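Quick one, T. Sequence first:
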Amino acid sequence: MAWRHIYRKFGRPKEGSLRASWAGLAEAKGPGVRSFLFFDLTEKPSIIGGSIPGSSYVRPNQHPFVRHFRASVASSAKRKEEQGNGRDRSLKLRREKPPPVEVAYVPPKPKPHVEAPYTPPRPKRPVKPPSDRTVEIFDGMTLVELAKRSGQSVQRLQEILSSVGEKVASEFHPLGADVAELVATEVGVNVRRQQWREGDEGSGVFEVRPPVVTVMGHVDHGKTSLLDALRQTSVAAKEAGGITQHMGAFVVGMPSGASITFLDTPGHAAFSAMRARGAAVTDMVVLVVAADDGVMPQTLEAMRHAKEANVPIVVAINKCDKPSADPERVKVQLGAEGLPLEEMGGDVQVVQVSALKGTGLDRLEEALLLQAEMMELKARVDGPAQAYVVEARLDRGRGPLATAIVKSGTLVSGQHVVVGSQWGRIRAIRDMAGKLLERAGPALPVEIEGLRGLPMAGDDVTVVGTEQRARLLSDGRRKKQEKDRLRTAAEEGPEWLALEDSTANGGETDGDGDGEGEAAPEKPRIVELAIVIKADVQGSGQAVRDALRSLNSPQVFVNVVHVGVGPVTQSDVDLAHACGACIVGFNIRSPPSSLSLAADRASVKVIIHRVIYHLLEEMGQVIVERAPGRVETQVAGEAKVLHIFELKGRSRSKGPDVVIAGCRVLDGRVARAGRLRLMRSGEVVFEGACASLKREKQDVDTVEQGADCGLVIQDCCDLRVGDIIQCLELINRKPKFVSSESGAVRIEC
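Structure tokens:
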């Protein structure tokens, strides 16, 4: 036995009897009886049962702890049974569990439905994405204020400042406007600069400035002729096609000694963006209306631009010297459109003029100066300048040129400027007459030379201190523009693919018809027309792009790949050849013969025009030719069955029996190539191909109206006298190019 070996090795215990303790423990039937046995290697070892009565624990003195055994009676019996330490394996304290009894599943009883009152979810507060948020910045704003406006933490803005090499003493340290814009651009928000803050008028020198007047109106109503009469020039005679296609800015000295800055805008419908830019930078608008023509679509558009810009309007009724002139009718039309005229109790001045004879110009000058005096126009003349780009073009010898109007401050030659996403150092400043200037004050249109790239019309001119600051600000704006472009492209996706999907789902059968299961007419596939645009100035390129995009139709998608300024180059031909595009040039010189040959070899079509009318007309014809068209079924003619001839008993070589219908063509024509539809009492009886068509024993292709013929409908024998046979033909209906009198164009499918 195992205990004998323990006795031989350690000796018998002095206190208590181990067998008696085990016997008493085995006789105890109560649950939870446990035994603790401790084996200690001492000089005289002892074995003590911790839970057995009459035993005590002896603390070891000399030898370390060897073994600590803790067990219960049940676990000891189970171990003996598994290992086979027992002699007869008769000690079994655990009984085997009976097999489980399968009980049928009883589903729970459904609980009665409790109608609870509907609680609408709490509406979430709309949060604008960072790219849609616009932050107004100014010179001297703190980092805390910028963090509140941009929705970012101060620590985040401090990290951006550190990455661009700017250091601030604290979060309340004032920042420059260019530094604040750089940080806001890195965050990803839109930026709008303030010229000056309210209450800061005493911090600068403010002087009275001349007014900026934009002349707007419908095409061919005499806007440029009126300006020529004011400045005694003949610009209108030099315009291509006799219409203004560019935005011009110039200063006119009045007979009274005052000077007024005029902006001349085109009146064609394609130049809507130019008119919007003119209304955004101006102080007042001169609305020119022809007395013999009245209010036209571009007149209403000019009124809308002026109202959106919140600028006053002065109406000039031109061409009052014509016999058909009716100024009173024009006034009634303007009043009906909601324009409050002075004669009707409003505040809008009306002046009747004649640009051809020069009458009424003094009254127009008086009205403009009176309006400017009422507005009390002042501008800051010291400090860095704030300017607005009216137009931009690329000169062959001078490089990128930007025509801008100074809004405040003084623009000095040699300063570093950032114009949109472009930057540069001003090399020269010229007025609109080409005279060199050292500085330009408020309300003065100038031409800036020295930019590294061509800016966009409508960009702001910002003066910065150093070249490094200009580079950083330009790079930040360029990255922001690229992110916005990619985000817009990802949100909108390719429009022509969406159109193609919509047309692909249009050929499903219509279940709401008469039950015959006729399929709906197939919709045409979408064709993409890629275009590369080259123009003389940036504004004209944008106008041509918007006009061509308005020609999108369900059959042709106009994709403007690139818009550039300047003549056509070899890189433009390569780009057009790579994407299968055609090159459209507006008001540029024709390419050299070598470049034309290269375009012909690359199968690139080059279209160049100087007048917007001719350009849009030719592009409309190109779009119509490129359109796949819509295949439709059309009734070409009708014939009435007068007699029926049956040929029976034919041989196998001649074919089966034939039923011939003797007909007379009532309307149109009957063609052998078309399908024939048999109508009886207004209902379709049969439809099939024409097997034979004869007239006077001769096979013919067509039979015109009023003639008699004999025809055979393939696989049709149920013919009766009085039936109507319709000849059907498939036609490919192309879209139409439509141009209105105002110059608006569209494609009708």
